[in-house]
């Protein structure tokens, strides 16, 4: 039964991150998930100081709040003329450093298990369950990530056209009356919720990897956004299933194996994609040169 819960959790994380990750890849903001996963450290510490409890709920609420502040600051700096990648780097390193300072000042004598909060292990998911009325209703991670998936899927489905236009042509979106800033912050909010809801249980590497690798792979396979989202979810789920069994055989990290499989699928797409594949393009170029040579000889 533990195998089922681990694979289900990995698939839910992959699906949730893949949906919002497609829009991040299109907007050239793929690494914002990595920024959020590090920048939330001061939120975790502040939540602990205010509540006096190491309960993960308080810490996740603090992390979610700082996650939203992170995306706001990144956008603010970008609008002020700072390049997008530089904005991400400045904000997440600065906030992460603030978190380290707070830890050194206020929690040095307290067992605040940040490794668990920031870099959780998916193998432990089946043991951290929720009980309602004395009945075990399943792992907390499945419920948390499942709710995040439903939220992201519902919002993207309701405002799909708006998100699509804002991602491809913000100027056109503004011209037709779409509030571009509102949908930008709505998307960033979904990214923050997805990241924070996932990384405590499954680890930052799995969350960041699923935000980037499956969408990037799907981008190589199609030029239609709706298909890209579907392909991204399927690739993420396949990576979770295959990665789990690879980890079982090798006795290795489950999250690391899942992302390694996703990386292999990306490499295959990069080489053999019908439109962007390196080998396919080389073959097309060789055929074209051969045709030109035959025409010249004739």
From TrEMBL:
Q: Which superkingdom?
A: Bacteria
Protein name (database record): Manganese transport system membrane protein MntD
Upper classification of the source organism reads:
Bacteria, Bacillati, Bacillota, Bacilli, Bacillales
Q: What CDD domains does the annotation carry? A: TM_ABC_iron-siderophores_like
Q: Where are the transmembrane segments?
A: 6-26, 31-50, 56-74, 86-106, 141-160, 172-196, 202-221, 228-247, 259-280
Q: Name one Pfam family in it.
A: ABC-3
Q: Where is the protein found, in the record's own terms?
A: Cell membrane
Instruction: Name the species this protein comes from.
Output: Paenibacillus azoreducens
Question: How does the UniProt record describe the way this protein sits in the membrane?
Answer: Multi-pass membrane protein
Q: Which SUPFAM superfamilies match?
A: ABC transporter involved in vitamin B12 uptake, BtuC
Q: Which InterPro entries match?
A: ABC_BtuC-like, ABC_TroCD
Please provide the record's keywords in A-Z order. Cell membrane, Membrane, Transmembrane, Transmembrane helix, Transport
GO CC list: ATP-binding cassette (ABC) transporter complex
Q: Which Gene3D superfamilies match?
A: ABC transporter involved in vitamin B12 uptake, BtuC
Q: Which gene encodes it?
A: mntD
